[in-house]
Write a structure and sequence with these properties.
The protein has 290 residues and is of the alpha/beta class. It has helices spanning 5-13, 49-58, 77-85, 98-103, 106-113, 134-145, 159-168, 190-197, 218-236, 258-268, 272-286; strands at 22-26, 63-67, 90-94, 116-122, 149-153, 172-175, 204-209, 241-244. It has eleven helices and eight strands. The two termini are 25 Å apart.
Length: 290
């Protein structure tokens, strides 16, 4: 976190006691940060806290949830510094090594005191988690005790074996990016069809975010998002959906702006009532604001 970020963050955090909208999926990082071994992606530019807060302000959004990016691995220090620089305005989703948690059970408690409200399991194009391992069992028991959520990012076809065991552990689950259906299949993806069956549990939430990752071209992506939203709303109810910008749109930085994703949100959520539920009421409770 460089010095440029602190004054802007400190100035803005005092101005947002009322929740006007929560962007539940964004990343902040600097290219100089420590990277995970063999990261799937290395960003070409920084995504600074001051820039994210400026985008929230420009779009009438008061709060945000920062998600640990995969290329920073389990080093959540940059994320924690960002949350501390804007107290009350931000929450975080961390990435943790379950083996470390088993050895240091106080770690998650410390993260909770710092504004972390869940962990992310990002296994897109990676192996499934070994949920039966004692370390994972200890971690998920602690997550349930803290009333955190587990945020899942994987291909839709893998959702049955990634999400079902989490529900068996008694944790709440947040599924990223419409469930990540295969772009060539769209709403015909069997994984998305499985996701719809989880609405009845009332313990699963879905992020209507990053529509551009689920289609081939802008028009196809929006069409898939609109069709998926109808199905998700019917299966889950509006109160189990949250929105995120996915800023800074990693791997799509040159193609998209925050304004683009905000416009898609307004297309998806066409009424003030819908935006109140999805941008304010639901994420405020789910991510422990207020």
């Amino acid at each position: 976190m460089n010095a440029r970020e602190h004054p802007a963050a400190a100035m803005r955090c005092a101005q947002h006691t009322t929740i006007t909208g929560i962007d539940t999926h964004a990343h902040v990082f600097a290219r100089a940060s420590v990277f995970a071994e063999q990261p799937r992606y290395r960003p070409a530019s920084d995504a600074l806290l001051a820039d994210f807060l400026a985008r929230l302000d420009a779009h009438g959004l008061s709060h945000g949830v920062l998600v640990q990016p995969s290329f920073l691995g389990t080093d959540n220090s940059y994320l924690l510094r960002a949350i501390a620089a804007a107290p009350g305005r931000l929450r975080g989703i961390a990435v943790v090594d379950p083996h470390v948690v088993a050895a240091h059970p106080e770690l998650l408690d410390a993260l909770a005191r710092s504004g972390i409200v869940g962990i992310r399991i990002n296994v897109l194009k990676m192996a499934d988690p070994e949920y039966d391992h004692p370390a994972w069992r200890a971690t998920l028991r602690k997550v349930a005790q803290l009333h955190w959520c587990v945020q899942v990012h994987c291909e839709a076809r893998r959702l049955p074996r990634i999400v079902a065991p989490l529900l068996a552990y008694g944790v709440d689950v947040v599924v990223d990016h419409f469930g990540r259906p295969e772009p060539t299949l769209g709403i015909a993806d069997e994984g998305l069809r499985y996701l719809l069956t989880l609405g009845a549990t009332r313990r699963v939430w879905v992020k209507i975010s990053a529509a551009y990752r689920n289609g081939i071209g802008d028009a196809a992506s929006l069409q898939t998002a609109l069709a998926a939203l109808t199905l998700l709303r019917d299966a889950f109810g509006l109160d189990r959906l949250v929105w995120g910008s996915d800023w800074p749109h990693t791997q799509f930085e040159q193609q998209l702006t925050y304004e683009d994703t905000h416009c898609v949100m307004r297309t998806l959520l066409s009424s003030e009532h819908e935006r109140q539920v999805v941008l304010v009421d639901t994420p405020a409770a789910l991510f422990k604001f207020g």
